[in-house]
């Protein structure tokens, strides 16, 4: 399961909407071994395409080095599909080179509907996983914040396929 | 001649889990052959059957992408640092079209 903060999801969706109809892409880094995405790093889509994305190799080197220096790893690698469903294409599977990462896909085909799915892609095998979106609640905030009208957590179950 | 090589997670099964290994060679091609003698199978993950650098990886010498330094012919010196990263790419596109773009890019880089 991918557990991720609502504020990060909102920023990823906003990035995807902003770059629509081109595909958007990026990384969410987190402390090594924590499986917790904490630091959003939107990346340039060097392909600037509606159907393809590619990190700029020099930007990637900089970002990967920075993660290394901070003892972080790429917990989430995200990109958008702008006309099709949020499911890994054969191209996505061929390139997937981070076996420890959650591959998060956002579809922007519907302007008003948030379509987010997460996958593990290891040795060419795609496994969907549920996404738990955790509301950003400051643990030190006054307690009444905890009893709002909206639920603190949203769970997206895997789709059938 | 020692060259430090940083290995990405996905290839550490070839290096016994090591994140950094050392090797030697006058060119990137020589270095990969040297590494393969101790870490069998590593080279095949980086170099295609046709003898070109694989599309799915980025290789850097110090701060430069080797695609702009002559790829496997990139010259190496003692003390250089080589970094290997998985290329991050994909998208809704079909694979055949992506491969065509890869071919085009390789041709552009070779100019």
UniProtKB/TrEMBL annotation, chain A:
One Gene Ontology term of the molecular function aspect: metalloexopeptidase activity
All copies of domain MPN, residue ranges: 2-125
Tagged with keyword Protease: yes
Keywords: Hydrolase, Metal-binding, Metalloprotease, Protease, Proteasome, Zinc
This protein's GO CC annotations: proteasome complex
Gene Ontology biological process terms, A to Z: proteolysis
Gene3D superfamilies per UniProt: Cytidine Deaminase, domain 2
Top-rank taxon, per record: Bacteria
Pfam families the UniProt entry points to: Prok-JAB
Protein name: Proteasome lid subunit RPN8/RPN11, contains Jab1/MPN metalloenzyme (JAMM) motif
TrEMBL record, chain B:
NCBIfam families, alphabetized: moaD_arch
Highest taxon above the source species: Bacteria
Pfam families named in the record: ThiS
Designated name of the protein: Molybdopterin synthase subunit MoaD
InterPro entries xrefs: Beta-grasp_dom_sf (IPR012675), MoaD_arc-typ (IPR010038), Mopterin_synth/thiamin_S_b (IPR016155), Sulfur_Carrier/Prot_Modifier (IPR052045), ThiS/MoaD-like (IPR003749)
Gene3D superfamilies registered for this protein in UniProt: 3.10.20.30
